[in-house]
Amino acid sequence: MNGSAAGTPREKDEPVRQRLLGAATRLFADKGFEGTSVQEIVAAAGVTKGAMYHYFGSKDDLLREIYARVLRMQTERLDRFADAPGPVATRVYDAAVDVIATTIENLDDSKIFFRSMHQLAPETQQAVRAERRRYHERFRDLVAEGQRTRVFRDDVPADLVVDFFFGSVHHLGLWYHAEGPLSGVDIGRHFAGLLLTSLRPVDGPGPASG
Amino acid sequence: MNGSAAGTPREKDEPVRQRLLGAATRLFADKGFEGTSVQEIVAAAGVTKGAMYHYFGSKDDLLREIYARVLRMQTERLDRFADAPGPVATRVYDAAVDVIATTIENLDDSKIFFRSMHQLAPETQQAVRAERRRYHERFRDLVAEGQRTRVFRDDVPADLVVDFFFGSVHHLGLWYHAEGPLSGVDIGRHFAGLLLTSLRPVDGPGPASG
Amino acid sequence: MNGSAAGTPREKDEPVRQRLLGAATRLFADKGFEGTSVQEIVAAAGVTKGAMYHYFGSKDDLLREIYARVLRMQTERLDRFADAPGPVATRVYDAAVDVIATTIENLDDSKIFFRSMHQLAPETQQAVRAERRRYHERFRDLVAEGQRTRVFRDDVPADLVVDFFFGSVHHLGLWYHAEGPLSGVDIGRHFAGLLLTSLRPVDGPGPASG
Amino acid sequence: MNGSAAGTPREKDEPVRQRLLGAATRLFADKGFEGTSVQEIVAAAGVTKGAMYHYFGSKDDLLREIYARVLRMQTERLDRFADAPGPVATRVYDAAVDVIATTIENLDDSKIFFRSMHQLAPETQQAVRAERRRYHERFRDLVAEGQRTRVFRDDVPADLVVDFFFGSVHHLGLWYHAEGPLSGVDIGRHFAGLLLTSLRPVDGPGPASG
DNA sequence: TATGAATGAGCCTTCATTCAT
DNA sequence: TATGAATGAAGGCTCATTCAT
What we know:
4 copies of one chain form a homotetramer.
Chain A: H1 9-13, H2 15-31, H3 38-45, H4 49-55, H5 59-82, H6 88-105, H7 107-115, H8 122-148, H9 158-175, H10 184-198
Helix pairs in contact in A: 2-3, 2-5, 2-7, 5-6, 5-8, 6-8, 6-9, 6-10, 7-9, 8-9
Chain B binds a DNA duplex through residues 16, 37-39, 47-51, 53-55, 58-59.
């Protein structure tokens, strides 16, 4: 018989834990992991230090959870798009639009991801990299499928295409602002369009021949 | 008869200052700005703390100098390529190859640049952003020139094209390793090729139509 | 069954805070504010640095508390004597004896007060000066009352009389030693006697005419 | 054949030394001895650190010189007044006026004297105290002479009278401002008048009997 | 006589974490 | 489940002083 008697159970059961993760995400994105003190996090979450150490083993633990949450979501979504029916070009396009729109919806997560990787404990860091690499390979396999079927040019290694595109994705947190005229999906369509176009078979690697 | 009499005086005139900047660059890239202690920097440079504070006003000052050095170099190089004669596609291609090769040659600088911006004092941060914006605009103007002259597609805003491409550039530090099979110029040619291809006039924005 | 159950809770409720203030007072008086390190204070109080920064925001904060304590006590005592019934000469005499005896009882506070004022933050300094000025004015009004009623000579501005007398008070810390033959009240009676005599109406300002 | 060829020799021979002492005096009075860095002193004097360490053995040495200068001047002046002809009351009065006027003319010296004593090396401190004590005794002997000759009341120890009066003198630095309406001599006459009056023979030690 | 780069010890403060309650 | 006092290590920085020139 706990607090779930009234209100949505999910949000009532672990409100402290969620508030802590939310506050930590916002602060880590704004000021960096090392630039944020545990005191600031618990103050922003409206709890005390003792409470935080009840739910999380350490400050690093908070960061680890944030990474886990991001990776879980990204993997789930990519799987859905990659496993969908339809031509490979469409699947790549849709997955590309989605990853950009999703990244923009969770821009704080993205800011943290590439800025704070080196703060994780070595083993955690390796685990994150491994999971990330699986994600990369999933996307690369899609590209390679397009290359095998002659839908995409094959003079650029598929791995390199993925690094090319995901650079643009990861960079979003450094320039995108919600106040601008373009929504996340707008950006997604533009970027995915550039990606698909860049993969069209070409005559040569140099500057446009025409 | 040492090198300072007639030879290159660079290594003898400011050896301590240069050693400090070098050590700081390496360490900041490896462990982050906040993860690196002044003690570690001076130990790596083989001097004492007092010496560091003789040449730099603070730890922040070291970071500021690193940013200034990067910006100066990047601006100089882009100007050279943008002002060169020849068709706009060639100029964009050459500049794109160069920025990637140069970034890879100075990968530590690149790692620091986008990870530690928020550690700079607000005014310094603004100055860096302003200088960075000028660089962005210089590149964007090249793209826009190509769009005006119908060499490039014009259904994607030139600013967005620049953000798309430079995401890939800035991301290099997160995956490129010198031990791989591809040199900086190799990567540059591949990425610049993808960029140029992505800018070819297209029928529509969706997944490749034909 | 310790003192905190029913006895005086003072020693048990805030032992660390009080020990810190006591140690700081003693050391600041001996070696000056800048000549005393936080390390020395916490060692003398038998706690760690972290504990000190749990109770006080900074080393300056300790000094500020010492000033506040002194000012509170002095103001309270002067008010009591000034508001007492009886002729003005008696009230001035009693207040003068008391301030001297009290100063001698808290000689460390007195040593700190006039030696370390310039170490306070500008705003704190102003607040202390303002409170000190109110004290001065309270005493001055007593003197002025005596001048108006012809009990005291009125050829010396009352403000100047107060500065004259309180110089002697503040100077106590520089020469008084408890080992001497005279108690605080002894000194108080002598100094108050000199003050009262100096205020007797006179023929002229020059050297004694008779 | 040194720089004394042009200009007043005295001021030309040791201009650096004098400028350093002047700058140090001003800064020590403003910010305290420990609150003033050697760098600030040499900057204010317009010389370099090396120059300072050429003329003075240490920062402490500067302070020692300032104390020596003050003591020398005060002793000289008191001697002149004490050894003058005339009644003892007049000599005390004149000496009292002079010490106040002189103190006000050199208020920075006075501020330093009582605030920074504890910064001197133990031996220097003892030497200063000894010299100071000789000064005190010289003045006390004047008072005692007046008591022996029945010009002054003798129910207050002469030593105490001197401590009483010199408290007022030393306190000047804490409240006197040149912008006020009263000159140094004005204050001197008022304070000396209060002193002389306070020394008139009285009926009893208590509050004025009338 | 004067320079200024370099030293090295020490200072104030912050902070993640623990633990008795 | 939660508190908050207390710890202890580490961090950035200042500064009087020295020394080769």
